[in-house]
Amino acid sequence: MPFTIATWNINSIRLREGLVRRLLEEEAPDILCLQECKSPVEKIPTEGFAALGYRYMVARGQKGYNGVAILSRLPIKDAGSHDYVALGHARHVAARLENGVIIHNHYVPAGGDVPDREANEKFGQKLDYLTELRDQFHAEKPKKAILLGDLNIAPREDDVWNHKALLKVVSHTPIEVAHLAEVQDAGRWHDVTRADIPEGRLYSWWSYRARDWDAADKGRRLDHIWASPDIAPAAHGSRILRHARGWEKPSDHAPVFATFDL
């Protein structure tokens, strides 16, 4: 059963319902995973998505902050969620497809502005979130699983516009990159996007602060799709829909896609 999956930090699903519907209409992924929905589950505008064929949803939400949702036109069942680091945040939800594949949608804490856990509690929460993920995968290796979402770390030198300039900037510091690598190694996760696009600069996020984000092109690859080793060979067709960053009143993230032949 081939299916295409996408991940997108939407930065308010209610504010940008129209953009979500546009993506579903124009790109038609079978499954769309959203982060930073900023809405209680009961207030997510599901009717418009269902009208486009996306009749299934699992989600975790909270008012004004965080929030994750999985929209699907394939049948899915809620596979639970976990409150990492006991933050009380809606940052993870899982769904199971009929073929047994489990999709884990994550919104890793951004980590604030100061890359020092002693001076910045949020940075410590980010590192602890990743450590808990690492320990979970050491205890139980993922099988038939996809982990995706806004992981808020650009790990490679060519995942940012200027490696040296960003070494002390949250999202690309060596300690964050090391923590993410430990998560990936613990679960033997394959970075699907970079398996398909192994070379060259690649971004999924551009700051709102740039007057002309496209011309400046000071991006980072913060959004990821990973696959467990048993299904990684079935993945292909990775792409980032860069032009969605230029839609009217956009998210600062662009959707990331991959296809799995399973």
Explain this structure to me?
By secondary structure, this protein is of the alpha+beta class. It has a single domain (2-261), classed as Endonuclease/exonuclease/phosphatase (Deoxyribonuclease I, Chain A), CATH 3.60.10. The protein has six helices and 14 strands. The chain has helices at 17-26, 46-51, 121-139, 174-187, 192-196, 213-216; strands spanning 2-9, 31-35, 56-60, 68-72, 76-78, 92-97, 102-107, 145-150, 190-191, 205-206, 219-220, 223-227, 235-240, 256-261. The strands form three sheets. A six-stranded mixed beta sheet has the order 3-4-2-1-14-13. The chain has a six-stranded mixed beta sheet with strand order 5-6-7-8-12-9. It has a two-stranded antiparallel sheet with strand order 10-11. Helix 3 links the parallel strand 7 and strand 8. Helix 3 (121-139) runs parallel beside helix 4. The model has no long low-confidence stretch (mean pLDDT 98).
